[in-house]
Amino acid sequence: MNKIAFITGATSGIGQATALKAAEAGFDLIITGRRKERLEQLAKEIHEKNADVLPLNFDVRQAEQVRQAIDNLEGKWRNIDVLVNNAGLAVGVSPIQDGILDDWERMIDTNIKGLLYTTRAIAPLMIARHTGHIVNIASIAGKEVYPGGNVYCATKHAVDALSKAMRTDMLKHNIKVTNIAPGMVETEFSIVRYKGDTEAAANVYKGMTPLTNEDIADTILFAITRPAHVCLNDIVIMPTAQANSRDVLRQ
C-alpha cells in the first residue's frame, strides 16, 4: 500500500511541486488549498501519474474547517504518513512602525496558526500508529531578520522553534520532524508580498538565479524517503548566489 502524504497550500509553488513529485515517487496524496479550481486541476494531474488523491478545499486559518476536514477522513486516508505544513505567505515590507494590521494578521494566522491547527489535528492520527513524519516549511527568515521583514521573520522564527519543540514532543511516539528553511525561491511569494506589483516582485530576483519550486520539492522528497532510523532535523537550502538573508551576488 502506498504511503499517504498530506500537503497544505498545494495549489501553487512549493506545495504543488511537492505533490507532483511525491505522486511520481509512489505516494498517495491529500492536497489542500483555498482555490478550488486549482486544487481540482492538481488532483487531475496527480491522477495522471497513477497516484490516488483526495483534494480538500479549506482555509488553514479557520480552525473549525481544519478540524472538520481531518475528522471526516475515512478509510485509508486516516493513515497519514507525512504531513507537509507548506501553506504560508509574506505580505508587505513596511517597517514595524508603519505596519498594516491586516497584513500582520494574515501572516500570523497562516504561518503560525494554520500550521498549528493542522498539526494538532493530524499528530494524534500519527501517534495512534506510532509512525509519521512532519515537515515544516520555514525560511531563512526564521534564522535571521532583515529590513521590512519584522512580522514575517517573527512568524518563521516561530516555525523554527515549533519544529524543535515538535521534534522533542514527538520523539517518544517515533515521529520524525523536519524543518526546511529555504532562501530565495521564485514562486508567487514576492507577488503576494508586493500585493500584485509584478515589477517589484521581479526585482527581487533580478541579476541572480533563485531556487525553484522543484528544488525545494526535491529536498522535501529526499527528507521523507530516508530510512526509518534517519531524521533530517533542520535543512537550510540557498541559491548559490545567496549567502544569507541580505547578501546576494547579482550579475
Would you kindly provide a written description of the structure presented here, covering whatever features stand out?
The protein has 251 residues and is of the alpha/beta class. The protein is 43% helix and 15% strand. It has 8 helices and 7 strands, in the order βαβαβαβαβαβαααβ. The chain has helices at residues 13-24, 36-48, 63-71, 101-129, 150-170, 189-193, 198-204, 213-224, and strands at 4-7, 28-33, 53-57, 82-85, 132-137, 175-182, 234-237. A 7-stranded parallel beta sheet has the order 3-2-1-4-5-6-7, with helices on both faces. The model has no long low-confidence stretch (mean pLDDT 97). This is SDR family NAD(P)-dependent oxidoreductase. It comes from Candidatus Odoribacter faecigallinarum. GO terms for molecular function: oxidoreductase activity, acting on the CH-OH group of donors, NAD or NADP as acceptor. Pfam families: adh_short (PF00106). Belongs to the short-chain dehydrogenases/reductases (SDR) family.
Task: Summarize the entry for a quick read.
This protein has helices spanning 13-24, 36-48, 63-71, 101-129, 150-170, 189-193, 198-204, 213-224, and strands at residues 4-7, 28-33, 53-57, 82-85, 132-137, 175-182, 234-237. With 251 residues, the chain is α/β, with parallel strands linked by helices. Strand 4 (82-85), helix 4 and strand 5 form a beta-alpha-beta unit.
